[in-house]
Every structure is written in structure tokens, then in C-alpha cells.
């Protein structure tokens, strides 16, 4: 079954608080906070045209000034991708010699084709585990570029076997990054780290449980950001656990005490409990330690 955006928004009122509340929570350390802020800058860099439409060897830069630590590091683009698939999956594979990391970054929504992927809400079988279903648009966004990325990734890892593989994204990019991480962990990269900022729900309970059981998942939400509330629980979608819930207001510096770590695929003490998704709540979607999508160009092109 396919759901329209109007159906999605109106159905939210029916969810209520019948589902159990999970009261388990903890705060993060200052060391964790510094890591969260740093990898958010790689997600921010994925919106910059100069990074996802570059040439190998290009040093990562952010025209919006929202990735200063990444710009200071010894970085270079190994592979970039955009405007080659029906879903317009965009991003880059980068080498960070300062932090000994190979970074796979996925851009969030920008083009018309991205938004079509955002609102499909069909299920598909990703063949990752028994009974697992993924949201079709997000899974297709990954599989459309998987083969081309995997070849370059394998070569890069072979040359830098002591580097961490880090997968990042914001919004649509976070949803794609989540499924890419789950897939790659089962294909030779079991320790891949995931930093997913403002991710929509991408999985049914079986798939969410499967990904949650994998190591190194860091999924962030921010106050009443509407995007992590979609697709709705009423449609059978849930989140990967844990949730790193940012409680500071928009455009504010985030401290360690502003982040609560919440367990469970549904937890009403975080973003899910702030009400049904509303268009007026979108300012919260842009601010994840930085103005994460600050490099996004104007308009909503079909091709970018």
C-alpha cells in the first residue's frame, strides 16, 4: 500500500500514547559530544556541491562555513556521486588522514527526485534478516549506488586497513546511511560507525532490532523535528535504538547535558513524544550542532 503525505500527517493524531513509555535514559560525556559535533560536520559537507560533484583529490570544503574542523583536517574526496540515478542519491567517499577515517557521506533531500524517494512509504525486503522490511525509497537510494561505491570502498579500505569506516548523513541522507551501514556491516565491515542526524524511520520492528544489535549506532533527533516522526508508527515503522535526543533550542550551542540517550525502537520521552509532525516544526530539522544543511542550494530542481 502507498500512503500520501496528507494521509501520513492526519494518521498521526490516531497514534496517541497507547504505546509503552521507556524511561531509561542517560546523558553523554564531553568526549562523546566532541565526536558527535565533528561527524555532524561531515554530514553538513554532503550538502555542498563542491563535495558531491567534485573530482578525486578535492579537499573537503563548506561554502556555508559549517564544517571548520573537517576543513582543518587532511581530507580528500576519493569518490563522489550525484545525478546518476532515479533517486538522485548524492554524496561522497572521503579519506581523512588526520582522524584515520574513511567517510561515506550521503546528502539529504534537495532535488525533486529526493523528495519522491522521501515519501514513497512502500515496504521492500532488503534480504538482511528474516522478517525484515525497509522503506523502499531509502533502500533504493542506497542500492542504486551500492555497486559503484563498493568497488571504490574496497580498494580504499585495502590501502588503509587501519582506518575506521564512518557512515554519516542528515535527513534523507541519514536514512540512506542507516541502511547502508546495516548492509555493509554484513559484507565485511562489521565495525562501521553510523552517525545519523535527523533520520526518518526506515525499518519495520524486525529490521530495526537487527540494526540495533549491530555496534556503533548513533542516531540523533532534535526537539520537535518532524522528519524523525515519519513514516508513522501507525504504518508499522520504528526507529533504530538508541536515540540521542538533543533538547537545546535552535541555533544554540549544544552541551553534553542537552543530549539524552533513550533506548527502545519507540520512546515517548524523546522526539516521538513532542506531538504529531507539523510543517511549522521544520526549523528544528536544520540545526544538528551546526546548520547542517546550510550548503543546500536554492529551489527544488529535478536535476542538480
UniProtKB/TrEMBL annotation:
Gene3D superfamilies: alpha/beta hydrolase (3.40.50.1820). The keyword Magnesium does not apply. GO terms for molecular function: hydrolase activity. Keywords: Hydrolase, Signal. InterPro entries: AB_hydrolase_fold (IPR029058), AB_hydrolase_lip/est (IPR051299), Fungal_lipase-type (IPR002921), Mono/diacylglycerol_lipase_N (IPR005592). The keyword Secreted does not apply. Transmembrane segments: none annotated. Residues 1-18 form the signal peptide. This is Mono and diacylglycerol lipase.
